[in-house]
User: What shape does this take?
Amino acid sequence: MSTQSVASAAPTGVDPGRRRFLTLATSGVGAVGAGFVAWPFLASLKPSERAKALGAPVTVDISALEAGQKLNVAWRGKPVWIVKRTPDMLASLAQVKGELADPESEQPQQPDYIKGDARAIKPEILVMVGSCTHLGCSPTFRPDKPAPEIAADWQGGFYCPCHGSKFDLSGRVYKSVPAPINLMVPPYRFANDTTVVIGEDPVAA
Assistant: This one.
């Protein structure tokens, strides 16, 4: 009886082919499961559409911008000003140099291709980040003169109402105010005479 039991039990052993199939199937399920777990992690490493949008260049049509006007746009979550300066505004830049803390823009607050009193690619078009370099308030545009409530010899510029910092019409900071450095000029280029691309450097010729 016991001999028959042993003999009949022999054929019921695990088939090697079936074992390989089960091993592969189990491994496959495990790999798929691991893939589902890893996918959200890998996806989280990619920048979101919102993040990419915040870092993307901004194209601005300035064809309707009139002399003496300021246009406000947003780039990377920051306010950016585009001002079309008049000849009188440009003339004021040399007049106030002696009152400025950094008239030659030696602090790296602008790209290398931004030079001179105008701090602009085209002197009449100012492009600047509108955040005070003291604590980040947004200064007001005060092209009007005189303005004795700001300064006795005010020639126009930007005034921060939060703590009284003053900047000329190129965003250069005055002496003896809370803001330590000039306003920042972002990278930008002209796509054509009436289109500014903020966030991209000029294309090399």
